């Protein structure tokens, strides 16, 4: 039965209106930020001219939208995302080298101004003093790590749908001995546990929550290791009750740990500086900013690392190294953007993280065909058949990389400058800086993809490959929309709750201090 024309036109019109509405809101945010920078006479920020990375991102989105009308490009979409991501980070590498050469040729005054800017930055990673040479080395190494990891991901699954017969790393591992694959899984689990331990050590605190999180993450890592080797040994029975129990215990521990981190992390870090006068209205209070940033950092790192362990539990064994590579790309990108605030605008950083998520999506073996969905992993830890639970696990496996990048965006929020939070009005400004662009840009990019492909599907409804190519792709686009809303909800809830708790604690501390002074 054909739908009336006015219904189709109305639906597409609403999608187009949503795209322009989101674009208008983002444009207003940009105008507000530019006015604030003009009022403060900021000289270290980017100028108003368009830069190469910004032009490339806009052109890349247009190329992606245009490619949706070709069945061949839809079937081999991974090549588009690999090209966009690798080229964008090559541009980052080029701009980094150019900035290093400019700093080398600049005067001592300019270098001292840049160092003063870095010292005044209250972001989490910038609080660790690095010499200019060390910062330049970190910037180069982090971009190179992203590029090398991306190249390995591209070689892991070489072909999509048409060129699935191409040799790649995954096929070599599939044909090799199973002990090699299990060893790679174990290495990935150990690497994730070590990275989380290092992240907690950077917080320089030994509070009970931190120690408890470390122990719970370590126990979850051991459970994943036990599940890996148990599934290798006990392969005779179709349903292994011991591995099911291990997975269920993992789900419980991970859920409790993540929930406790979300609820308690804003309460354990200090809200005031011991050296500062709480009732003083002059200047900013860096200790407050560090407490806020540390809380967001702890929450984001916990999200990310527990999600990686979940992926290592659910994904196919040959996908263990790709999961680790995606995690390394996230960490490297966050470090790079925290050290190079003066080279890239915030929206460029957010879009770059989005590109990494889509590259990782195809780097885990996903395609635009329903045949590539991992159904077997959707029953790990389920003792009896459940359509809802299996569907949720299947969604988690399929969109593990995009969701991982949204969780990594919470870590990226912690490197934003938030020095002045001395007044209640500043909290809304900080919340705007933390979550506005990450949420709105994700919604805008998804809205562009959904609207464009809806129009393409309507135009291609009589195409020969409408059921084999275009319709499955539309299901993926709709599922990606759910993924985007879930990721945006996590980012918004984390930022809003953390700012609300710190605002409440700061107000109470200020009121108590005033009462003590009056008394």
From TrEMBL:
Is the keyword Transmembrane helix assigned to this protein?
yes
GO terms classed as biological process: GPI anchor biosynthetic process
According to the record, the segments passing through the membrane are 6-30, 51-73, 79-97, 183-203, 208-229, 249-270, 291-314, 320-339, 384-407, 435-459, 474-502
Q: Which domain of life is it from?
A: Eukaryota
Q: Which InterPro entries match?
A: PIGG/GPI7, PIGG/GPI7_C
Q: Where is the GPI ethanolamine phosphate transferase 2 C-terminal domain?
A: 54-492
A GO MF annotation of the entry reads: CP2 mannose-ethanolamine phosphotransferase activity
Q: What is this protein called?
A: GPI ethanolamine phosphate transferase 2 C-terminal domain-containing protein
Q: Which PROSITE patterns match?
A: PROKAR_LIPOPROTEIN
Q: Name one GO cellular component term.
A: endoplasmic reticulum membrane
| Signal peptide location | none
Q: Could you list this entry's UniProt keywords, alphabetically sorted.
A: Membrane, Transmembrane, Transmembrane helix
Is Cytoplasm given among the entry's keywords?
no
């Amino acid at each position: 039965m054909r739908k009336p024309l006015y219904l189709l036109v109305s639906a597409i019109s609403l999608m187009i209106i949503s795209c322009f509405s989101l674009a208008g809101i983002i444009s207003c945010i940009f105008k507000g930020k530019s006015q604030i920078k003009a009022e403060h006479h900021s000289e270290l920020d980017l100028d108003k001219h368009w830069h190469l990375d910004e032009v490339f991102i806009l052109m890349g989105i247009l190329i992606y939208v245009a490619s949706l009308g070709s069945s061949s490009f839809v079937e081999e979409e991974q090549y588009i995302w690999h090209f966009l991501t690798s080229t964008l980070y090559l541009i980052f590498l080029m701009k980094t080298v150019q900035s290093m050469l400019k700093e080398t040729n600049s005067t001592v005054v300019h270098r001292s101004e840049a160092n003063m800017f870095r010292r005044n930055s209250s972001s989490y990673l910038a609080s660790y003093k690095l010499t200019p040479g060390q910062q330049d080395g970190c910037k180069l190494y982090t971009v190179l790590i992203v590029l090398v990891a991306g190249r390995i991901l591209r070689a892991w699954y070489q072909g999509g749908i048409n060129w699935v017969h191409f040799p790649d790393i995954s096929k070599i591992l599939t044909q090799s001995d199973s002990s090699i694959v299990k060893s790679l899984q174990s290495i990935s689990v150990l690497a994730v546990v070590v990275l989380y331990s290092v992240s907690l050590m950077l917080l320089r605190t030994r509070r009970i929550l931190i120690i408890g999180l470390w122990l719970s993450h370590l126990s979850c890592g051991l459970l994943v290791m036990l599940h890996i080797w148990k599934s290798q040994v006990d392969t005779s029975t179709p349903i292994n009750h011991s591995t099911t129990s291990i997975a269920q215990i993992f789900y419980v521990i991970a859920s409790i740990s993540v929930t406790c981190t979300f609820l308690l992390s804003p309460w354990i870090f200090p809200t005031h500086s011991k050296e500062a006068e709480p009732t003083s209205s002059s200047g900013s209070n860096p200790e407050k900013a560090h407490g806020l940033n540390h809380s967001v950092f702890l929450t984001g790192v916990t999200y990310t690392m527990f999600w990686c362990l979940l992926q290592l539990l659910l994904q196919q064994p040959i996908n263990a190294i790709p999961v680790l590579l995606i995690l390394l790309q996230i960490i490297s990108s966050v470090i790079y953007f925290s050290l190079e605030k003066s080279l890239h605008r915030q929206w460029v950083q957010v879009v770059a993280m989005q590109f990494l998520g889509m590259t990782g999506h195809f780097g885990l073996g996903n395609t635009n065909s329903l045949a590539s969905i991992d159904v077997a992993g959707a029953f790990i830890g389920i003792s009896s058949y459940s359509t809802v639970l299996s569907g949720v696990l299947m969604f988690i496996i399929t969109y593990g990389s995009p969701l991982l990048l949204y969780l990594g965006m919470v870590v990226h929020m912690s490197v934003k400058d938030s020095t002045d939070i001395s007044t209640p009005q500043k909290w809304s400004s900080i919340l705007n800086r933390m979550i506005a662009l990450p949420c709105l840009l994700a919604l805008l990019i998804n809205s562009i993809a959904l609207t464009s492909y809806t129009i393409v599907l309507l135009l291609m409804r009589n195409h020969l490959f409408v059921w084999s190519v275009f319709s499955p792709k539309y299901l993926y686009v709709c599922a990606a929309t759910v993924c985007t809303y879930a990721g945006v909800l996590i980012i918004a809830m984390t930022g809003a709750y953390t700012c609300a708790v710190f605002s409440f604690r700061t107000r109470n501390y200020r009121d108590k201090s005033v009462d003590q002074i009056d008394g």
